[in-house]
Recover the amino acids of this structure.
């Protein structure tokens, strides 16, 4: 037997966390505990039978002949090329009724005139392609996707019929600012196998109302809290559905975020999954933020204490949604296909388009460029030796594409900690 390459030992909150980034197993030990069984095979050999069993079953100690690195690479590549599951992110328009300053899409005004054509061509594409997959996820994104709720629901009605006829499963997800959501549209989305709906609050009322404002200048904090409290009870019988409340940390503190979370009725909290993120700079937003990813655990703890669920990391052996190759793309208002839309000024993320007949025309050089970026961790000496490789997998592909392969290492808190929650 040998010690796994991926045992990470960290002191957290006066405890010792031992975490294996490959198996995702974690153990909390009292401060001062002897951790040698996780680091040294001689110490492991001297341990009692029960300890040995726990350590081997949880991947902290592995068979001599196991090559964990090659296994991770295999799983990652297998996921990269697997097309059983397919996720299309629909961006029918970049228009929004909010004007959040950090949104990379805030300056776009185009799109409205193309929405009809967008869904017509999308249907042609879907007719030719959705039935090739066992499961299709349709994610509604924007802009604000619910500006076109009727068009979206009409398309989902079509998908429902097509999936029955052609024997595939489909489910949906929505990222919305929440302002246009009604009980009626929410119920309809739930009946289209809604898997996740995400609404964002910026830190606290004061902060939120200065950032997430309607184009008219009207604030939105009170409206969104009211909607969340009204809508969550409608979803409790849908056991596969996740209501996601994203809290953006932006020059805030724990006391203010606590006040925000306490606005959510106690009986609703256990049905809400918290996703907490520190706002970071993009090409469209360059402001100072006193909050960073290193504080996330404190906020996760707060959420748990108040009765919320903390959203589990879902990108197992995948660095982000955008490294899913053929099983993932964003379909933009002009029917171009993008791997990542976090920087629309960087057009190498555009890997092709769908023509008027619903046929995909790829840009091979951009497909390969993205592939190289997604695979680079397995060629990089530092990544190969990194204990966080199974969680981080080399980090943001977009960053590497833009910076000639240079990687931006993630901290443990960002890469691995979400898996222990
Ligand atoms: S910005 Fe990077 S990490 Fe985020 S979705 Fe795009 S490629 Fe993935
Ligand atoms: S990018 Fe950095 S943190 Fe991520 S696997 Fe590579 S070396 Fe590790």
């Amino acid at each position: 037997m040998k010690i796994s390459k991926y045992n990470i030992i960290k002191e957290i909150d006066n405890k010792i966390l031992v975490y294996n980034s490959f198996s995702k197993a974690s153990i909390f030990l009292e401060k001062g505990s002897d951790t040698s069984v996780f680091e040294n095979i001689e110490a492991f050999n001297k341990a009692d039978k029960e300890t040995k069993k726990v350590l081997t079953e949880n991947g902290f100690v592995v068979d001599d002949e196991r090559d964990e690195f090659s296994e991770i690479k295999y799983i990652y590549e297998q996921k990269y090329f697997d097309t059983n599951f397919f996720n299309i992110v629909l961006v029918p328009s970049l228009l929004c009724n909010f004007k959040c300053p950090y949104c990379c899409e805030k300056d776009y005004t185009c799109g409205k005139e193309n929405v009809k054509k967008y869904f017509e061509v999308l249907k042609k594409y879907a007719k030719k392609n959705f039935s090739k997959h066992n499961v299709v996820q349709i994610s509604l994104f924007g802009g604000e996707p619910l500006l076109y709720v009727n068009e979206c629901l009409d398309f989902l009605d079509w998908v429902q019929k097509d999936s029955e006829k052609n024997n595939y499963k489909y489910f949906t997800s929505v990222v919305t600012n929440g302002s246009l959501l009604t009980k009626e549209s929410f119920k309809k989305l739930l009946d289209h196998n809604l898997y996740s709906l995400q609404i964002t609050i910026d830190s606290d009322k004061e902060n939120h109302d200065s950032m997430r404002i309607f184009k008219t200048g009207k604030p939105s904090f009170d409206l969104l809290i009211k909607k969340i409290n009204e809508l969550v009870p409608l979803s409790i019988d849908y056991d596969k559905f996740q209501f996601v409340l994203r809290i953006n940390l932006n020059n805030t503190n724990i006391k203010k975020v606590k006040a925000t979370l306490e606005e959510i009725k106690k009986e609703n909290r256990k049905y809400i999954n918290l996703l907490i993120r520190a706002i970071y700079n993009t090409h469209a937003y360059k402001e100072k933020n006193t909050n960073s990813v290193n504080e996330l655990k404190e906020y996760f703890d707060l959420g748990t204490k108040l009765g919320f669920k903390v959203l589990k990391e879902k990108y197992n052996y995948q660095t982000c949604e955008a490294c899913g190759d053929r099983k993932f793309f964003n379909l933009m208002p002009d029917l171009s296909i993008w791997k990542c839309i976090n920087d629309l000024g960087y057009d190498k993320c555009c890997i092709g388009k769908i023509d008027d007949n619903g046929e995909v025309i790829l840009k091979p050089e951009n497909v390969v460029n993205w592939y190289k970026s997604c695979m680079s961790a397995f060629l990089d000496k530092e990544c190969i030796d990194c204990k966080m490789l199974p969680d981080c997998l080399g980090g943001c592909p977009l960053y590497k594409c833009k910076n000639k392969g240079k990687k931006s290492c993630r901290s443990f808190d960002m890469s691995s900690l979400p898996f222990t929650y």
Summary: Residues 149-166 form the longest helix (18 residues). Residues 377, 382-383, 386, 388-389, 392, 394-395, 407, 409-410 surround iron/sulfur cluster (ligand 2) (CB under 6 Å). Residues 83-310 form a domain with the TIM Barrel fold (CATH 3.20.20.70). The first strand starts at residue 2 and ends at 3.
